[in-house]
Amino acid sequence: MGKRYIKLYEQITKWEWFHKPATLCLFVYLLLKANYKDLKFEGMKVRRGQLVTSLPKLATDTGLTIQQVRTALSNLQSTGEITDQSTPRYRIITIIKYDDYQSSTDSVTDKQQAANRQITASIEREERIERKDNIEPPKGGRGASRFTPPSREEIQEFCLENGLEIDVDYLFDYYSAKGWKIGKESMKDWKAAVRNWARREKKEYAPKQETKPAPRVLPVQDFVQRSYENEQDEAMDRMMTWGGDV
Questions:
Q1: Residue of 105, 95, 75, 107 whose CA lies nearest to 34
Q2: CA–CA separation, 188 vs 71, rounded Å?
Q3: Residue 86 in 3-state DSSP?
Q4: By CB count within 10 A, which of 20, 48, 86, 197 is most buried?
Q5: CA atoms of 199 and 165, how far apart (whole Å)
Q6: Would you give per-residue pLDDT tens digits along the chain (246 residues)?
Q7: Residue 85: beta bridge partners?
Q8: What are phi and psi of 75, to 5 degrees?
């Protein structure tokens, strides 16, 4: 069974029962459940805008109490919205102005589908124009594949899936301005370009380690085993060896 829709006009907010939740709820339910075309029920013709139901059924489906349903039906009858025929087994409710409230469900569906097709065609046409402006025709004849530039969302999703931390907006704007070219050649694989971009950013912004001069290795001198003729010779030897002052 296909989807069905009903029309609900903004003017309903000015309806006298709009601020009566039980009455409003029941009326919307009746619009949803009424026949949109003539049907047969136990040999009886139930017309468009009518439904066969009962008080318990209405209460169960709407979540209202039996008394609330009775009151709501009475309200709707008092303002000429419905008629209510009761029998020992069921009741037939007729929405008097159903054709004024609702057009054919099939017609509504057809119009919605036509509108959706028109919107889709418009989007596809704009995308084709954008690609034609930004991308050169492929070389190599009819069998050559044509590059399709990615959207920002596609790039963002690719980066998230692969753990790439880059400025997506900057990358997108950069390649869009260049017509999605690398040098003078049209881009062939945007994912590879994104990975290369990420590697360059990682390398450029990696924290640079300070290079400290290696500690000066001094020759080990065994002063204990040396013998000096005087203190002046010993002092001179220390200065020459360690590079310090005496």
A1: 95
A2: 70
A3: strand
A4: 197
A5: 10
A6: 456 677 888 888 889 999 999 999 999 999 888 888 888 777 778 888 898 998 999 999 999 999 999 999 999 999 999 999 888 888 899 998 888 877 654 454 555 555 555 545 655 565 555 455 444 444 555 545 678 899 988 998 898 888 888 888 888 888 888 888 887 888 889 999 899 888 887 776 666 666 666 555 555 554 444 555 556 666 666 665 555 444
A7: 92
A8: -60, -45
- Structural contact between residues 52 and 39, judged by C-beta atoms closer than 8 angstroms: no
Length of the chain: 246
Q: Quick one: tokens of 131? A: 């690609």
150 with 193: CB under 8 angstroms? no
* Residue in the block written with tokens 């059924």: 57
Strand (E) or helix (H) holding 122: helix 105-134
Structure tokens at 86: 């009761």
Whether the model pTM is above 0.70: no
Quickly list H helices, the chain. Answer: 21-33, 55-62, 66-78, 98-101, 105-134, 152-162, 168-177, 190-204, 231-242
